[in-house]
Specification:
The complex is a heterodimer. Chain A is an alpha+beta fold. Chain A is 20% helix and 33% strand. Chain A contains three helices and 13 strands, in the order αβααββββββββββββ. Chain B is of the alpha/beta class. The chains are: A alpha+beta, B alpha/beta.
Amino acid sequence: MRPIRYLVTVNYRIIIPLAVCGLIAACSSPGPVIDTTSPSFVGDMPVDFSGSWERDYSRGEDVQGALNSLFRERQRQVQQQQQYPGNSRAGPQPGMSQREVNSLVALAKLVQDITKPDVLTISQDDFEVRVARDDDFAMSCSFYDGIARGTDSPYGTEVCNWAGNTLISHLVLPESLLITNRFTMSPDGNYLRVITTASSGASRTPFTLHRYYIRFEAPPRAFNCIETLSMKRVCSTGEIEP
Amino acid sequence: MRRVLAFIIAALYLTPASAQLNISVTTFDAGVPEDYSLHRDLQVFPKIRQIESMFLPFVLRQSLVDSGEWGAVRVVPESDDKAEILVTGTITHSDGETLGIELRAIDSRGQEWVNTSYTTSSSYEDLFAGFIRDLQAVQDSLDQQTLRSIAGLSMMRYAAALAPEAFGDYFEASADGTYRLLRLPADSDPMMARIRRVRSVEYVMTDAIDQKFRELYEEVDSVYEIWRDYRRWYTNFKLGEAQRNEFAQIDAEPGSYEALKNLYDNYRMDRLAAQEQDKWAVGFDNEMEPVIRKMEVRIAEMNGWVEEGYVEWTRILGELFEIEGSLE
């Protein structure tokens, strides 16, 4: 990973990078590289993800499988190192301590929790991509004139960027906990791949999980509803005009 | 046009305004930053601010009326610098817990009475009480002659706007935006009598618009209170969460699932609360939008009548001035 680089401008734009840097400063592992001063796209957002997406169980990984392949890869590296010990100086030791195994399993369990929702409802306008999930907050990616604008809270910072046609959402939490979701849509617009990666200061190895979703048409609702303050949710079988 | 003529005829039967200084309170500047990207971070809900900018002036109006120290107090949709006293305001902060408004009062001479930021964490009547005290203090510092000249200058500036040939030289305007009354027409001046009647007619319209703001206030007030209660709850919730987290003892080992989950859940709960707040704001907008839309249409209609009337009054008064001049 490249080192942290936050370009800071005046006014509010200082807040998020500083907050993120502050959070990252408390940790030893690098955080995301997000430029919050120059646009990551010009004009419209590169991809419109709007729509309802349901999990495609025929593709993607489950957490246990992803963990197993990670451990198998590590085991292969260890064996390779034992066969060719001269290469050991080239990089870190591939073996894992019990503590690191525990940390990796913890990351995997967290990713499992985060990726549990089977349905993603994505809404998108000129400024924001919003990914609504059951039982969790809606991920939000805001851009103004193509420049990423993070969501800052005392408990973490959410900030996004575009890498070509991939939307990358970074959630930076205390203690170097970093959760990244990469959203890529198939060219025909029917499939969505979400790669979720979690890393923390306690583990040298990040945990990554691939999930796939299929676009579906949400069935029309029997009622049209709007939220109100005094009457809460008001529903009607006809049109409701606010 | 028929309506305009009806107002002109009605003017013949109306009486002049009272001796106390009249106050016009314009709808406030909502104080919404043009940069959309700042709205969320500054906790500014543009549509709610718009509603606040329309109904808070009415609360101020009520407080001014209740003080009993002023003449007619009207909420007007647009700034009128010919008013005896014009009050303008900009909402600087409104989160249910704290309300901040910059209030400015100038008189018809262009002299500033008050230009101060007021904040309150209790009722907005408290905030306006502070402003009214300041306004009152300025009034108390002025002698009767000055107060009369403010009223007179307001009338002459109004008259000059309608009949510049007749009344343009009764006052002088300085480059710094201030005005000075030079003289007043005779009480028996027939042209002035007509101007007074026209102004009274305009006041009838302004009062009708003011009535619309009263209706808005009555419709918005209860829903706005729910919103304020919610915002107070939300602010307290955030404070409580911050305190809970500050003093919470997390025994979990760093890097363990429990520790990671705790970090994630803190953020999750914070975002869920913020998103719930957004939902409430949408609920407020949904509920108030038809009311605001109806009111804006009605005010635009009434303003249209007044503007139409202005054109017609100016023409008629100009013709009368010419006829009277040729008779002398």
